[in-house]
Amino acid sequence: MANSMSNAGASVTSRGDVDIGAAVRRSREAVGYSVEDLALTCGLTCAEITSIELGADVDPGRLRRIAAALRVPTSTFLLN
Asked: Is it the case that residue 15 has pLDDT exceeding 60?
């Protein structure tokens, strides 16, 4: 199965693509963080986080920082 339990926060589109932005947003909301809270915790700007959640930015370094701030495995966002 392509979508393992460790990637449960990621949604899959009808084409089979993973929506990383939605996975970030759901993970952020699951811990009760606002965009501002996450920005302060991981050292990114609100604009950078919003860009990631909208799917415009999938920079692996930024996603790793977000995963660390949210205390989730990077695999939540399909990073290795």
From this structure: no
